[in-house]
Recover the amino acids of this structure.
């Protein structure tokens, strides 16, 4: 088994180098294939990209619209899991137009989420002809990683943090002698969406550092030497983005710290590949 590890490492390094770097010959071939075009052609391509993205977004909203009631019910799942409804807490509408307002909210958010892969595809078609192969691979990998990290942050928040946050906030209300039994549905949905978005965006922080590292703005040694500051910053950000309970802060901060360590390893690997390419 010992001889397999170096062989696997060598294959991984070779694949990594081929995917994210290019030789002088490949760069020359890409430059030769990238024939300059008149400005009007780029403008027409941009116009077509905007039209296609707009149509895809509208179609996605129309498709999502019938599922709006299900989406509202899904967003109440953390409240069900917390057991607060058994204690008399309920989500209710207090205005005559609340149903239409929620319908528009879920349609806009849902349409944006569903159409996002199609929007990115059209944007890629417009941008990628001007990029080299390894640059396209870097952009694609970054975007895929961003989607995965955003989805992971939202899942973590929806599965664990929201339930704990609702329990903590209700406990604070009871301690302050202002028990709450009716939650306005618009305020509740807005609260849930903001927390989910905060978790999803917070998980993009390591990806930003990774991009800066791959561009040569930050080095692996710099990230390693600033580890203590980064951990303090991560916990501080988590404190502001999560509800006022320590467990929610830890649930957000610990995965971000692990992603920070992974970022250091990937940046160091990139530096190693660059150094070998120059030799």
């Amino acid at each position: 088994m010992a001889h397999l590890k170096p062989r696997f490492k060598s294959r991984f390094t070779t694949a990594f180098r081929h995917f994210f770097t290019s030789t002088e010959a490949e760069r020359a071939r890409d430059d030769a294939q990238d024939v300059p075009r008149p400005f009007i052609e780029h403008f027409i391509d941009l116009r077509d990209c905007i039209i296609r993205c707009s149509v895809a977004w509208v179609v996605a909203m129309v498709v999502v619209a019938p599922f709006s009631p299900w989406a509202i019910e899904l967003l109440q799942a953390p409240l069900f899991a917390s057991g607060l409804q058994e204690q008399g807490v309920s989500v209710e509408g207090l205005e005559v137009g609340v149903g239409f307002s929620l319908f528009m909210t879920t349609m806009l958010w849902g349409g944006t989420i569903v159409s996002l892969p199609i929007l990115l595809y059209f944007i890629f078609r417009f941008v990628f002809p001007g990029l080299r192969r390894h640059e396209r691979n870097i952009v694609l990998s970054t975007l895929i990683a961003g989607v995965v990290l955003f989805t992971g942050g939202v899942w973590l928040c929806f599965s664990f943090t929201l339930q704990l946050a609702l329990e903590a906030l209700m406990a604070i209300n009871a301690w302050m002698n202002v028990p709450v039994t009716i939650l306005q549905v618009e305020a509740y949905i807005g609260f849930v969406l903001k927390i989910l978005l905060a978790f999803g965006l917070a998980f993009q922080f390591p990806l930003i550092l990774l991009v800066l590292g791959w561009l040569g703005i930050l080095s692996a040694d710099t990230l390693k030497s600033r580890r203590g500051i980064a951990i303090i910053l991560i916990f501080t950000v988590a404190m502001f983005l999560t509800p006022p309970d320590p467990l929610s802060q830890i649930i957000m901060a610990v995965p971000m710290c692990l992603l920070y360590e992974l970022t250091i390893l990937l940046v160091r690997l990139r530096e190693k590949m660059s150094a070998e390419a120059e030799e």
Summary: The chain has a mean pLDDT of 78.
